């Protein structure tokens, strides 16, 4: 039986892209991105899936597998996290938070099944149950100056600071200044959506929300970029996604060595592409590297100014020379901008 949440989205005009896990829009992607830049928007976050760990060993289980400190994650806090290969390359990124009964992990929908299977292989004798509750919950994104007002109309509250969480049957996670996501049982999702939208929030799809993540400098690993980056290459330690005080986890030695012993050669930067097009996983080139790739596109979305905005993981020397092209040597040039945090 189809989820009542998906039935509702169909009724209000959501269109899902065939063959692209959870990617949807409401018929006018460029207008939706423009709305995300200028007004309050509401988005079904169907391009993100959920896992859940329950049981007395749940926190220790995840703590021993991921890059962040899950054991000390407080009930009213969220953090970014990652699961890495033994070589320190990121296999998935997560947003992690907990409630009284367990721990949620949100990841890219196209990685969800594989990550659930992969992490389940580590359970062994641990007292933990790892499930996929994606069809039990709807996750709704809300962004813009009217976020707090819209939440109030739905009987919800905006948490006091970034990466804080309100608890209850419906949870609200404040991602940054005026952006939040609401995690709600599917039976209540349509009602919550209607109350939020009644305050004038414009419905937008996955691409518009992805643009907001790009502007926030938040990297989400997808199938196109798996095993490409060590955490610091995507600024993950700068957004609180890595703990350097915890014990071992897959890839920990590489991540720690990069932090303390190595000289980081690549970083993630915000960039704009005025001409041509780009996709996640595309190679980047600069004159100093000839026909050898100097980096990759991590994520991309149409820009409100036309062209595309993207997160580019690129050699720092190439960024400093301000000579980076997409797809081929001498291809369309990137213009670099700033992120909302300092990249050094």
Topology:
Layout: H1 4-11, E1 15-16, E2 24-25, H2 29-38, E3 41-44, E4 48-54, H3 58-63, E5 78-84, E6 90-98, E7 102-108, H4 109-120, E8 129-131, E9 137-143, H5 147-153, E10 164-166, E11 171-176, E12 179-185, H6 186-197, E13 202-203, H7 206-216, H8 252-260, E14 266-273, E15 283-285, E16 295-302, E17 308-315, H9 316-321, E18 325-326, E19 334-336
Parallel strand pairs: 3-13
Antiparallel strand pairs: 1-2, 3-9, 4-7, 4-8, 5-6, 6-7, 9-12, 10-11, 11-12, 14-17, 14-19, 15-16, 15-18, 16-17
Helix pairs in contact: 1-6, 2-7
Shape: globular
Q: Write down the Rg.
A: 20 Å
Distance between the termini: 50 Å
Helix-strand category: alpha+beta
Order of helices and strands: HEEHEEHEEEHEEHEEEHEHHEEEEHEE
How much of the polypeptide forms β-strand, as a percent range? 25-35%
Extended strand count:
19
Unreliable spans: none
Query: How would a crystallographer describe the biggest sheet?
Result: 6 strands, mixed
Total DSSP helices: 9
Describe the structure.
The chain has about 350 residues and is an alpha+beta fold. It is built from 9 helices and 19 strands. The strands form 4 sheets. Strands 10-11-12-9-3-13 form a 6-stranded mixed beta sheet. It has a 6-stranded antiparallel beta sheet with strand order 18-15-16-17-14-19. The chain has a 5-stranded antiparallel beta sheet with strand order 5-6-7-4-8. A hairpin with a 3-residue loop joins strand 6 and strand 7 (about 100-110). Helix 1 packs parallel to helix 6 and helix 2 crosses helix 7. The longest helix has 12 residues, at about 110-120. The N and C termini lie far apart (about 50 Å). The relative contact order is 0.16.
């Amino acid at each position: 039986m189809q989820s009542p949440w998906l039935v509702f989205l169909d009724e209000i005009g959501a269109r899902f892209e065939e063959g692209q896990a959870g990617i949807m829009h409401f018929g006018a992607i460029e207008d939706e991105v423009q709305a995300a830049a200028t007004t309050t928007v509401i988005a079904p976050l169907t391009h993100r899936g959920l896992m859940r760990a329950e049981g007395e060993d749940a926190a220790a289980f995840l703590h021993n597998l991921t890059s962040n400190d899950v054991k000390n994650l407080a009930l009213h806090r969220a953090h970014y996290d990652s699961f890495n290969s033994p070589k320190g390359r990121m296999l998935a990124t997560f947003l992690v938070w907990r409630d009284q009964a367990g721990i949620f992990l949100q990841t890219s929908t196209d990685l969800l099944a594989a990550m659930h299977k992969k992490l389940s292989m580590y359970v062994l004798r641990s007292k933990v149950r790892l499930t996929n509750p994606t069809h039990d919950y709807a996750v709704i994104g809300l962004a813009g100056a009217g976020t707090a007002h819209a939440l109030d109309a739905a009987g919800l509250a905006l948490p006091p600071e970034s990466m804080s969480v309100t608890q209850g049957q419906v949870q609200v996670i404040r991602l940054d200044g005026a952006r939040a996501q609401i995690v709600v049982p599917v039976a209540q999702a349509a009602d919550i959506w209607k109350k939020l939208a009644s305050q004038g929030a414009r419905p937008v799809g996955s691409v518009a929300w992805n643009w907001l993540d790009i502007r926030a400098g938040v990297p989400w690993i997808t199938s196109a970029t798996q095993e490409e980056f060590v955490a610091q290459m995507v600024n993950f330690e700068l957004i609180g996604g890595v703990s350097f005080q915890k014990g071992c986890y897959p890839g920990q030695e590489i991540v720690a060595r990069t932090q303390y012993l190595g000289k980081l050669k690549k970083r993630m930067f915000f960039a704009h592409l005025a001409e041509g097009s780009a996709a996640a996983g595309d190679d980047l080139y600069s004159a100093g590297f000839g026909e050898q790739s100097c980096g990759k596109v991590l994520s991309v979305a149409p820009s409100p100014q036309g062209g595309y905005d993207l997160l580019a993981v690129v050699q720092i020397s190439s960024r400093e020379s301000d000579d980076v092209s997409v797809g081929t040597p001498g291809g369309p040039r990137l213009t670099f901008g700033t992120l909302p945090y300092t990249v050094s």
